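Async update (no meeting this week)

Hi team, since we skipped the sync, here's where things stand on the single-chain job. The sequence we agreed to prioritize is pasted below, unchanged from the tracker. I ran it this morning and attached the output directly underneath so nobody has to dig for it. Comments welcome in thread, and please keep replies under the output.
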Amino acid sequence: MTLEFFLCIVSLFVVAGIGAPIAYAILVAAIVYLAAGGQSIGVAGKVLMDGLYQSFIILAVPLFVVAANIMNAGTITDRLLRFCVAWVGRFRGGLGHVNVVASLIFSGMSGSAVADAAGIGKIIIVMMTRSGQYPRGYAAALTAASATIGPIIPPSIPMVLYALVSNSSIGYLFLGGIIPGLLMGILLMAMNSWLSYRRGYALEDPVPIRKLPGLTVNAVPALLMPVILLYGIYGGVTTPTEAAAVAAAYALILAAAFYRALSIKKFFQILVDSARTSASIGLVIGGALILNYVVASENIPSRVAQALVGLEVSPILFILGVNLLLLLLGALLDATTIILVIIPLFIPTCTLLGIDLVHFGVVVVVNCMIGLITPPYGILLFVINAVTRIPIVEIITESWLFLAVLVSALLLMIVIPDIVLWLPRQFGYSPSP
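Output:
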């Protein structure tokens, strides 16, 4: 390890340790590295601008953020919830099932776990706790767990970021996330059913069958959004970035013209909020691009890859080891930082060991989403605490069983790659050997 790289690492941990945003910590550490090595600070600017200009796919991030915020602001969320209540609310633990199904549907529109939790999640928690049928900690924990599905089923902002650092096909990554997302939803619903029977949670009054067609028709325009998105990408009509623009435009037309639920004032606030969110993500991306330059200058990925290959580590053991590390890091770092800073270290090793990058990418994103509900610093736990004022201790207490379910789903994806790769293969994907 060179002196400048040692100073870089120390700076990173010191700045992050005093409470500075991780993006600032990364930028400061990178600048310390360049200064200590006698390189011009202008190198950081060149690396940053080259990375941004050469990565057209980054533009999809703010567009998906806008689409999610529009969906949350209009009456689209309410219509989807009524649709979900009508179809699955009649069973034992019905509102818990509504919670999961709503997240599955909304995941096809937002691409963000935080957007799901803060938007539709808040509404469902109120529904579950209003009559006292469900403990507030249980409602919040299930909401946090189901929100992790948001970035797994396309569109997915974390998958866009993974595609950026791995040069993988974003289209095949999106396809690879569909079955894993459904698997996570099914397992969460199974756990909700078991707990509801065991704890005796009350049944909901079923919506009359005659109302189902009307509620379904009312929700169809919103349900068409993921269909339009996927058809645009896999029908060869749009690139993934252009599909993100179509998604944002469709959400705007739906909320403003079709449902008439979006005013000029509300739309302006949506743009402001979206700009702030996109800027925060952009800072992390910029810092990660510079830090990746530092890591590449130190030749760390190649050293790691050669060391592991020299130990004759099997692909499955490598993936299990990486995922164990990511589960631990997920309790301390946010998903964006892990994907942009940590994951690039493992990409060369995956290539040398013959690990498929689409399979690895989907598994990594699922792992990072699990980290969002892992104590002590799972961000979704704090988001739900902030929007509902439910004590964080109550949420964590109820979250362990759902966390175990999601880890079980992750293990299945690791040991059975076809869970991820079967659907991409149907659309012509040829996994690497």
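Quick observations from my side:
Residues 40-426 form one domain.
The two ends are 33 Å apart (CA to CA).
Reply here if anything looks off.
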